[in-house]
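Quick one before lunch.
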Amino acid sequence: MKYKLSRISLGSVFKVTFVLGLIVGLIVGVVLALISMAGLTPYRPLAGAAIAGLGLIGAIVGGIVSGIISAILAVIYALLYNITASITGGLELELSEARVVYPTATTAYPAPRPVEATPKCPRCGSPLRYIKEYKRWWCDTCRQYV
Ligand SMILES: [Zn+2]
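Model of the zinc ion complex:
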């Protein structure tokens, strides 16, 4: 089935890109803090600890700033997309339904029929029971396969 992406929700774009930017900013900030700490601690341990603390604060602030910047940029892009899509018709998407596959249940042996359609024993008329192991119908009353 084909769909057209006519409009992107700006709120969802902001949320997703803010979190992504936050994560990336935090990682970069922590790495930079670790590098600067490793460079300074051998000479002045106290200064190194202070730098590490500052670096951690810097990483958090940097992460938030990175999140806000990337979210604002993405929202601008989404807004521009919405404007262009309203003129050009938007991106065409081909979506397919996700399917759950049961590999053995349908192929290995025929599934037992629903309760109301259970076959009756030709000898005594009692409802039969399907035995998966032997792929045969069993009568509990006659105690034998049909
Ligand atoms: Zn029977």
